[in-house]
Write a structure and sequence with these properties.
Strand content: 15-25%
Strand order of the largest sheet: 2-10-9-8-5-3-4
Order of helices and strands: EHHEHEHEHEEEHEEEHHHHEEHEEHH
Number of domains: 2
CATH superfamily of the largest domain: Type I PLP-dependent aspartate aminotransferase-like (Major domain)
CATH class of the largest domain: Alpha Beta
CATH architecture of the largest domain: 3-Layer(aba) Sandwich
Helix content: 40-55%
Number of helices: 13
Radius of gyration: 21 Å
Length: 396
């Protein structure tokens, strides 16, 4: 794999040079005023990216999975019922995590390629007259299938049925790249990681926590120690950390937020949408289809592309790495061998995306797929040229 080429996986994403330099930071005393002055702006910046004024931001030294474990263990007790849809590899993993903690998971089975079905969530919540369901789990952006779910619609289902369940949202591959509104959507725990839209190395599990979730913590009986939100929030209140923090990543997180805000969050989201639309134009020109089947549910951060029946899509990924030093994403779970994935999030431009599209064309031509070299590139170029005047200026 060549480190000179961008990666086209849905995370970890490409790291801008400025953020690489920001992570190159010396050891300091994490109980000093210097660390306090570093941590509090980082947490405030995360709250702005999550678009919450009511909630708290919390970071742990972990990946996004650690944030999910924190969400579950801090607000629920063994035997509690939670409601979740299984419609991709990552929604499946959160279901498995809940079961390992002794939770009773009511699973809504949905097709891999469709978003979380808000109507079926509404039916399940309406049927739960005794309010046994304590939490609803939603994967905002299913990274395995390239499908975006409508979080606001699931919040409406909770509100219209008068159901008091907590709303947990996996925003690992959406937050800081796609529109996310924690307060407006009534999200109680939002989770993400540093290695996606924040464009940093893996190592920060990021949680947004609502007042309602904070209130649930005192009744929760799942064991927690390292991921105890109460300990973390008490320490954070005075600029501290309950154990040794990842100082270099926290230092870089503040700079990451500054880059996002210099571009403007709405512009960041528009850039991702524009790049994704170019990739989708390329897929159409190749005569292929996305795994995402519901119009409007296509992810703006990752495209999962179906290959013809009988062709092992994993060959595209392995050939791209071996021959051209380019990284694409493999299919996972039920779509393993059926799709390959082009990640287009974080530090990504239309010019970078064109390089990935061109590389994918070379690989597919090498492997004998009926794709005309240049067809996808030309389709994406046409889109990018037509929309270039509306594209925001790159962040400084």
């Amino acid at each position: 794999m060549s480190t000179q080429n961008p990666v086209f996986i849905p995370g970890p994403t490409n790291i801008p040079e400025e953020l690489r330099r920001a992570m190159d930071y010396p050891s300091i005393d994490h109980r000093s005023a210097a660390f306090h002055a570093m941590l509090l702006p980082a947490l405030a910046g995360v709250r702005r990216v999550l678009r919450t004024t009511a909630g708290e931001a919390v970071i742990f030294p972990a990946s996004g999975t650690g944030a999910w474990e924190a969400a579950v263990t801090n607000t629920l007790s063994p035997g509690d019922r939670v409601l979740a849809a299984r419609h991709g590899m990552f929604s499946q993993r959160w279901i498995e995590l809940c079961r390992r903690h002794g939770l009773d998971v009511e699973v809504i089975e949905a097709d891999w390629g469709l978003p979380a079905p808000a109507d079926r969530f509404a039916a399940a919540l309406s049927a739960d007259a005794g309010h046994a369901i304590r939490a609803v789990l939603v994967t905002h952006n299913e990274t395995a299938t390239g499908v975006r779910s409508d979080v606001a619609a699931i919040r409406r289902a909770l509100d219209e049925t008068g159901h008091p369940a907590l709303l947990f949202v996996d925003g690992v591959s959406s937050i800081a790249s796609m529109d996310f509104r924690m307060d407006e959507w009534g999200v109680d725990v939002a989770i993400t990681g540093s290695q996606k839209g924040f464009m940093l190395a893996t190592g920060l599990a990021i949680c947004g926590v609502s007042p309602k979730a904070v209130a649930a913590m005192e009744k929760a009986r799942c064991p927690r120690a390292f991921f105890d939100l109460r300990d973390m929030m008490r320490a954070n209140a005075t600029g501290g950390f309950p154990y040794t923090p990842p100082v270099n990543l926290i230092h870089a997180l503040t700079r990451s937020v500054a880059l996002l805000e210099a571009e403007g969050l709405d512009n960041v989201f528009a850039r991702h949408r524009r790049i994704a639309q170019g990739v989708r134009a390329a897929v159409q020109a190749w005569g292929l289809a996305l795994c995402a089947r519901a119009p409007g549910s296509e992810s703006d951060t990752v495209s999962a592309i179906l290959t013809p029946p009988g062709f092992d899509a994993t060959r595209i990924v392995t050939h791209a790495a071996a021959r051209y030093g380019v990284a694409f994403g493999v299919g996972l779970g039920q779509v393993a061998g059926k799709v390959f994935r082009i990640g287009h999030l974080g530090s990504m431009t239309d010019v970078m995306a064109l390089a990935g599209i061109a590389a994918a064309e070379m690989v597919m031509a090498d492997l004998g797929l009926p794709v005309t070299p240049g067809s996808g590139v030309a389709a994406a170029q046409a889109h990018y040229r037509a929309t270039a005047a509306a594209a925001p200026a790159p962040a400084p």
